[in-house]
Amino acid sequence: MHSNALKINLFMAEKKENRTELSELGEFGLIEHLTKNIKIKRPGTIKGVGDDAAVIDIKDKLVLVSTDLLIEGVHFDMTYTPLKHLGYKAAVANFSDIIAMNGVPTQITVSISVSNRYSLEALEELYNGLLLACEKYNVDLVGGDTTTSLSGLYISVTALGEVEKDKVVYRDTAQKDDLVCVSGDLGGAYMGLMILEREKQAFKADPDMQPDLQGYDYVIERQLKPEARQDILKILAGIDVRPTAMIDISDGLASDIMHICKNSELGCKLYEDKLPVNQDVMKAAMDFNISSATAALNGGEDYELLFTIRQNDFEQIKAIMGITVIGHMCDPSEGVHLVTDKGEQIPLQAQGWDSFRDK
Amino acid sequence: MHSNALKINLFMAEKKENRTELSELGEFGLIEHLTKNIKIKRPGTIKGVGDDAAVIDIKDKLVLVSTDLLIEGVHFDMTYTPLKHLGYKAAVANFSDIIAMNGVPTQITVSISVSNRYSLEALEELYNGLLLACEKYNVDLVGGDTTTSLSGLYISVTALGEVEKDKVVYRDTAQKDDLVCVSGDLGGAYMGLMILEREKQAFKADPDMQPDLQGYDYVIERQLKPEARQDILKILAGIDVRPTAMIDISDGLASDIMHICKNSELGCKLYEDKLPVNQDVMKAAMDFNISSATAALNGGEDYELLFTIRQNDFEQIKAIMGITVIGHMCDPSEGVHLVTDKGEQIPLQAQGWDSFRDK
């Protein structure tokens, strides 16, 4: 994605020209229209869209399944989310779940529900984003469902993946003294969201204003067009390091390390000074007067991989750019803590989206 | 389901006692609460709820995937849909898609989105219905997602299934002169919906009224608690008859035979006097002054199987109770027609839900 294109499309919820009402097509016509250009890429995809169910030939591997439901006004805000980006992100978020099992995403199904506020062209944009992600990750879109909603846009994506039986990595298999590693950097998607929300408020106050996104390209891209870290799996396989446990960071580091600790029945210590935070994220955090550690710990949607490795693999890992050792697992009696720069131990708490509390 | 229980629960959208606010649990607490009693039944289910993705071991079979998104106010009306029934139906509708491929449903994932109008007890009811269907059909619930919505209830179910490679049945493989068969009887779910809608209007006019459902047990059960016809597959396998093409009747006979015709590039003739209609459906249709053929052709959600067989299999099929031969496939130049009792040929048209037109 070029940042320019991003800027131009922001705050244009929908182009007004070329509007085809969904009622002109009907349900079957719409599905046919949206799926007619889908090409099957994977040899295992025997049947895609167009029958009661998709058909997939997996041979001797394990099948992985992951699903997400994204809702306008809860998970995304149409004011600043271009539909193509939304489709891309919806697909990538599910690929990330498959990758976090050490698997390869192979197929997705997509159910979309829209009110008649959306035009055919809007849905095409959404599908274009989904298909762009499928193209990039070599995944087939094999089915779905398209219906009306009374209001708003709902997207449910289910991803299938595969993994060899002896390669699958779970959340509950971390061992005491394992090192905790994270890919990439953290907090960017969260800071991007903060910026976009700020500009939305300014835009509501003055619709003629130009959004001030100068210097925030990185964090906005982290929010609007995340990637799943398939490349990290290849690197780990290349140096013959198998994570002992793994999860993707969708809810935030604090919540996601808690899943590994709870499921593996262990405690852990993470070190504030080890948390990987990009300069642009630090700058944005300063603008909002929050610490970059807070953004890194509690911000969600980075889709980085959080995993544990045996201490013996440390030498291999430390040479890899883009993977940071941030702590270690310990006895459950020691709890789950962040050790600050000053040496204080702060207990970590799962944040999740706490979406039921916020509303 | 006992009809008495059905009557008592109708028009009680939610019990007021024992209300636990979702905000008391938070997202992770809610997922844990709803999934803690799920027991894995199938040997192929390696990992269910609780990791990034479910893990399934399929061996040498084909994997089938089907997905549906159900939306309050569009696909169901909380006024007369008990949540347990809704969960049951949401699962069964997806099982039916897998069965229509001649497959065995094996796992489902469920994403639910609710506004805080719903209590924990309401979600438990919904889950109880989902799990009851899973129990009956020997399916494992292996994952999902639970989030807030701004309003209303959204349920997305994805079903996985399996089928041996040489047993899968598609929509596009009917042959000219094949016989068209249907299981069970048609139009019941549609007439049940008409009755429930009528009583809803009466209830809105006078909230003290008792709904008049006398004599409509059958059609209401068809609407609120449908079953998927796994038994029919067993019968067909038992007499060694393999359908040449198959689909489940979810949109209505007219729409669904059209899918077989279009995908198989054939025409067909269906005979009005052959359409299987239950006496209670006929009676209900008369009350509403519509022909039972109209209910059978255009009513959806019966979840019966519509399939084609070779003429050679006719002798085997005609002895089977609960399967009716209703017509035959023909050259595409002859079109898709219903032959009426009077010998007139009426072109059939796909109705679907036409949901984009209705709103």
The percent range for strand residues of chain A is: 15-25%
- Give the number of helices of chain A: 12
Averaged pLDDT of chain A, please?
87
Low-confidence stretches of chain A: 1-9, 11-15, 352-359
CATH fold descriptor of the largest domain in chain A: Phosphoribosyl-aminoimidazole Synthetase, Chain A, domain 2
Strand order of the largest sheet of chain A: 8-10-7-11-9-12-13
Q: What is the second-level CATH architecture of the largest domain in chain A?
A: Alpha-Beta Complex
User: From the alpha-carbon coordinates, what is the Rg of chain A to the nearest angstrom?
Assistant: 21 Å
Give the overall form of chain A.
globular
Greatest interface and its participating residue counts: A-B, 80 and 80 residues
Number of strands of chain A: 13
Distance between the termini of chain A: 33 Å
Q: Quickly name the level 1 CATH class of the largest domain in chain A.
A: Alpha Beta
Structural class of chain A: alpha+beta
Largest sheet of chain A: 7 strands, mixed
Give the helix level of chain A as a range of percent.
Answer: 25-40%
CATH superfamily of the largest domain in chain A: PurM-like C-terminal domain
Secondary-structure element string of chain A: HHEEEHEHEEEHHHEHEHHEHEEEH
Oligomeric state of the chains present here: homodimer
Q: How many domain regions of chain A?
A: 2
